[in-house]
Amino acid sequence: MKTPLKLGTSKVDITPGTPIPLAGFAHRTGGFKHIAHQLYARIHCFEQSDDLGTKTTALLVSADLIWWGTDLVEKLTPKLRDRYGFLTVILHATHTHSGPQTSDCFLEALGKPDPHYLEDLEQWQLVGIEQALQNMEPVTIQRGTGQCLIGVNRRKECDGQIVMAPNESGPVDSSVTVIRFRALSGRIKGLFVHYTCHPTTTGDNEISSEYCGVAMERIEQSLGENVIGAFLQGCCGDIRPALINDDEFYRGHRMEVERFGSWLSEEVLRINSLPMDELTPTDLKSMTMVLPLAFHSVPTVNELEEQANRTDIHGEWARLLLHQPQRRKASIPLEMTRLDLAKELSFITFNAEIVVDYGTFVMDTSHGRMLPLGYTNGMIGYVPTSEQLAQGGYESQGSVPYFGLPSPFHPQVEGIICSTISQLIGEEQNHE
Hints:
By secondary structure, the chain is an alpha+beta fold.
């Protein structure tokens, strides 16, 4: 018999102290000019014990970052496991495009990492974890759902080509899922908000936690300073904020960021005010599966040398693959982790920019019991569907050089991914 699930929480400021470059948009130059909204890491530590006193622990961090770079995750995760004994480490990013770069695995157009900031980021995580471990207490879990209409599909066929434009008939996930953790006294200790939309409202050269961070700040202020929230980003690879003028997207500014944040926070607070479903306790456990995603092809040295003198993004890509031959491989590992918090609640995480169809597949196949999280425990790039690979467009082809990949993925990857997701969803025993 396991003891009740315990939760410890903390929130640490991870805003850069100096004006370093931001990640996510190639048009920005130099360090950021202003701080519109502070960046935070919201830390949740889970613990459960059996009759013999053996503890099972899990760490979930939701940070206002574009992603946790795979190179950073590979450095940080073993330290967290060794220092604190976490069996499961979930380093999740909200995917804001108005924060620092955390990886040097990609072209500089996506943002150049600052090594001093990454050192600070590591120390801030350690401080936050120590704080969270000091306030562990038993919790119960409730769940509620609603809708918010911030996002729209961004893949549209025009003149036989896929362009980045509003596609209001394309797939989208407008659902809002609220996970509430209550202490035994009845007070709210933590609140997870799961939603699916790129935080790319603004492209200004200023620090911002984007609509998701604004929403969490407003929610926490409304519920009380001791409530620590966490925004959980879904599979938003092809979903973008619906800032539309004459059938084209445009970038907003602080006002639009705060408007969308207000929309989301109002819906979350509405859900929180209504009766929510009580979730059934279960064993705290996880399982990780890693599968190789095959590329369509791998360029030869001669092919790369022919492009290496170009002054555009393709020249930079060719030079990167020539200088780092380990990138010229047939596949790249996609890591998926399932973390169970209740019988009716699990997360399935991906170390990639996953398009919305995969998120819908997770929720439909699990009958809503499992929530998909992209941008977790690393970043390999966009993972599109087979249909999108055939169609072309940014997610399937245009993004490839930016992430330093040898080519688009093989069309068969969708079937392999969905099969593995089904295995994770059906797996009830032998969890790590």
